[in-house]
Write a sequence for this structure.
C-alpha cells in the first residue's frame, strides 16, 4: 500500500476518534439529566430513595470516571496513531514538515496523558470540589484547547496528504487509460 494512503488512513482515524471522543464526553453528562428526568422502572425507586440531588452527584461521578477512562485510553491511542503517522510520513512519504506536525500532535497527547489528565482526575475525585473548581476549570479548558489544536493539526495533515494522493492516483491511472485507448484503435 502507498505511504500516502496509509498516512491518510491514520490521519482519518485520528480525526474520527477525536470527533467521537468529543461526542461521547458531552453525551455522557447529558445522559445524567435524561436518566433523572425519566428514570426507568428499576432506577426510579433508587432515585427516590437517594433523592434527586444525591442521585445527580452519584451519576455525575460515574460519568466522570467513565470519561477519565475514555480520555486516558484515547490519549494512548493518539500516541500510537501519531507515532505511526509520523513514521509513515517521514520514512515512507519523505514529508518532514508533515511528520513534524504529527510529532507535535504526539507531544501534545503525551503532555495531556501524563500531566493534564492525571491532575484533572485527581481534582475531580477530590473531597474538596469547591476549593479546586477554578483550577479544574482551567485544566479542563486547557484540555479542550489541546484537543482542538490536535484535531486542527490532523485536519491540516489530511488536507496536505489528499491532493498529493490524488495526483499520484491520477498519474498511475493515466498510463492505463492511454494504453486502453491505444488497444481500442
Amino acid at each position: 500500500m502507498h505511504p500516502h494512503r496509509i498516512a491518510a488512513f491514520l490521519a482519518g482515524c485520528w480525526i474520527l476518534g477525536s470527533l467521537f471522543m468529543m461526542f461521547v464526553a458531552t453525551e455522557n453528562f447529558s445522559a445524567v439529566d435524561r436518566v433523572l428526568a425519566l428514570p426507568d422502572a428499576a432506577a426510579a425507586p433508587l432515585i427516590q430513595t437517594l433523592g434527586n440531588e444525591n442521585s445527580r452527584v452519584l451519576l455525575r461521578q460515574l460519568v466522570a470516571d467513565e470519561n477519565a477512562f475514555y480520555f486516558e485510553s484515547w490519549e494512548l491511542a493518539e500516541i500510537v496513531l501519531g507515532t505511526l503517522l509520523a513514521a509513515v510520513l517521514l520514512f515512507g512519504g519523505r514529508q518532514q514538515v508533515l511528520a513534524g506536525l504529527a510529532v507535535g500532535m504526539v507531544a501534545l497527547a503525551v503532555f495531556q496523558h501524563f500531566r493534564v489528565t492525571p491532575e484533572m482526575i485527581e481534582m475531580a475525585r477530590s473531597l474538596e470540589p469547591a476549593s479546586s473548581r477554578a483550577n479544574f476549570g482551567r485544566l479542563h479548558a486547557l484540555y479542550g484547547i489541546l484537543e482542538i489544536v490536535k484535531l486542527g493539526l490532523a485536519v491540516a495533515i489530511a488536507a496536505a496528504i489528499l491532493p498529493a494522493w490524488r495526483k499520484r492516483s491520477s498519474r498511475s491511472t493515466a498510463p492505463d487509460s492511454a494504453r486502453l485507448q491505444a488497444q481500442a484503435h
In short: The CA atoms of residues 105 and 150 lie 5 Å apart. Residues 3-167 form one domain. The chain has a mean pLDDT of 86. The first helix runs from residue 3 to 37.
